[in-house]
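Thread: S9 family peptidase, structure

OP (GT): Posting the sequence first so everyone is looking at the same thing. Length is 796 residues per the record. Can we get the structure tokens written out before standup tomorrow? I want them in the notebook alongside the other entries.
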Amino acid sequence: MAARMKAAALLLCLLAWLPAQAAEPYRQPPAATRAALDATLPARASISPDRRWLAQIETRRYTPLAELAQPLLRLAGVRFAAGSLSAPPGSAALQGLRLRPLLPAQAPERRIALPSGGAWHSFAWAPDGKHFLLQRRTAQATELWWGSSAGGGVQRVEGLRLNGVLWDGEPAWLSAHEVLVLAAAPKGAPPAAPLPGPQVQEHQGRASPERPLPDLLRTEHDEALFEHHARAQLVAVNLLSGGWRRVGEPGLIHTVAVAGQGQAILVERLVRPFSRAFAWDDFPQVIELLDRQGRRLRELARLPSRQGIAIDGVLPGPRVFYASPTADAAIYWVEALDGGNPSQRASYRDRVMRLEPPYSGEPQEVQRMPYRFSRLRFLENGRHALLTETDRARALTRTYLLPLDGSQSRLLFEHALRERFRHPGAPLMRTLPHGGRVVAGSKDGESFYFVGSGASPKGERPFVDRYSIKDQPVQRVFQAAEGVLEMPLAWLDERQLLTQVERAHEAPQPGVRDGAQWRALLPPRELSAAWRAIKRQHLSFKREDGVEMSAWLLLPPDHQEGQRRPALIWAYPREFTDAELASQAAAYSELNGLPPPGSPIWLALEGYAVVVEATMPVVGDSRTVNDGFVEQLQMNAKALVEQLREHGGVDISRLAIGGQSYGAYMAANLLAHTNLFKAGIARGGAYNRTLTPFGFQSERRNLWEARETYMKVSPFLHAERIKEPLLLIHGEQDANPGTPALQSERLHQALAGLGLTTRLVLLPLEGHSLQSREAAGQVQWEMHNWLRRHLGPGKP
């Protein structure tokens, strides 16, 4: 026995001296694609609320691997670092910040010096434009910093650690210089982990359908750890002095809003018992009102967990609370009139309730809605709001002009959720001097504005419409010229409109329009020489049932007339309730902006033709549309391939099909149910719908209500028919519900077990979309290598 123990110890010593097994190295695409991947993002423009300052926010394009590799806690559906109490900012982190006054027009800009270390993010203007906020995430804390627009450097709010476990980081303003944020509450060491034991869940009573969610609580220790880290203190920070004060008691606070000019603070916080079947936002909650010092004015509601609520249902009691940012300072919320059950017959689904200051009386009903409540936006005049409701069964939405005094509302418009050509747009928003966000209106308070894309068969012509408070015709006060994508952003005054011009190969360019004159605020900047060099053609065609379709065909810079290239088709299917709406989706739409990481567009630099933005409509009743999903995909693919044949620039005998997420699911289905393609690429998809048994995408029936459809549309269950080589790529940390990496792993195992050609690439530290430069390069290399192996080189 002693001899064996001695031999075992010797073996362990020898193993310790052996070199660690090297990880698979990241691959990189050819030089031209590498250069395109390394192009810097254009700065994002942000205008101060007082319209006096222009901030140019420079964000990084990728997240460093070292940052992605930092350990995160995964509790109650959120991922965060224990030190910083926040999720990494990712590619939204700032690389630079520049400010320049808008007047005079040629005033010099100044670069804001950001101290080294950590990751800067979350730029926000103070309501009066005199200050701005920044956050910096380090290994030890998330810090709050502030600066003056007029000059000087940034300063840290000393002694303050922000808590972003549940809070989204959006500040709430008590005044132009006092801001509410959530800070880490004082606490001791986190609870120690016990020895592992059994994990038990039990359910009794009514049905509780649940989507497959990652990172849920599993043990009592998880619950204690979540409560320890998520506990936050509401804090008011004074930007004139840099000091701060506590407001109220700490708790599991996640949402804060200010009513009026600080008359009350609306706070939403979680309470026990926590659920091990839902993420944190479906836990029980308490909604309460505080005064400026943090004293409780009133408890508004106690919301139960969502257990037993249908996926399309809502809580039966109060929900969705709003603090009016205007002078009325009232609190609004919604209550279900059908018990929260969408299958129950009811003349009205929801009603809006209102509680006026001093918040001690009884709430009053403001409006009843035949459809389900969607959104409430307050007008600048303080007397009206825009109320939106949605009928999911018919895929319709309605918006009303709602008088806040409870008098009769007026229907402004009704349209399909997928409407493009007659879409009224969205309200033009502005920030009030004390911080509230409202729908922008005229000085006299008798009208308000909407901004829309102006989609048409020939392209987009953005517009501004003026709506009258009185029942008068809508007036169009601005529309971009044909062929110019000029998007309105804000009114500078009654005449001057701040807009942003977007051109195919250039960074968005902000400017000021005064009647027929437009003045650029920044010089034009090309996004990428490689992006400009790629040739592009817009294709319009019809499928056999007459539904309009379209796509962009991208060809290599050296492509010549008469050449035929192997091609990759990249698409994403979308559902429509009728053929007219599906045809609208095929309208001309320009390719603007730098392609995202992992885009197949860059394969054109390697000689391949690439088809992107290919419409893949699935038309039918919203409840049963997936019954014909496979047949309509077949029809779409056939029409697209025929169009490519007629075009002549593509060798249709060498076609691959691919997509991301729902597009990956589409690609696997087309390989299983057509013979049009020689290979496929599927990234971050779901292939076995029995693993998403309570619905997916637009599907609202569960597996047991639509068993045949679930089976039919699951390419995993038809794996024996996927004869063409399939490349599967998935982020190992994919937190998107329904698309865990397990989906790709199981499909790969099925194809390999059946003796079919497949390759599985799991990307460590990556989620549903790509974040690191290394992963972006690897994906480009994988796609290029796969096409070269199975379609041949990208040559005519």
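GT: Both are above now. Quick notes for whoever picks this up: Confidence is low (pLDDT under 50) at residues 1-22. Residues 486 and 501 are 4 Å apart (CA to CA).
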